[in-house]
Amino acid sequence: MAIDPDAEIDHEGPVTPYRQLADILRARIGRGDWAAGRPIPSENRLVQEYGLARSTVRRAIAVLVEEQAVWTVQGRGTYVGQPPKA
What we know:
About 40% of the residues lie in helices and about 10% in strands. The chain has 3 helices and 2 strands; from the N terminus they run H-H-H-E-E. Strands 1-2 form a two-stranded antiparallel ribbon. The radius of gyration is 12 Å and the shape is globular. The N and C termini lie far apart (about 35 Å). The relative contact order is 0.19.
C-alpha cells in the first residue's frame, strides 16, 4: 500500500505516530523532496509541521537510520542516503 507523502498524522489510528511519520518521510524521500546527501528538515521543524513530540520525531528518524534511508551527524542534521565513505 502506497503512503501519501502529503498525509497527516492520524493520532487515533491503529498505526503509531512514529511509524506514520517514518512512512511519510520515506515516501517524501522516494518522491524526491530531498536528494541523496541533502538534509531533511530539522527535528524542530518536523515537530512543528506534524504536531508531534520531539521524542516521536526522533523515534521515526531512528527507524529510517536503521533502514539506512538516512544518516545523522550530531549537531548538523539528518541526511538522505548512506554517509559518504571516509
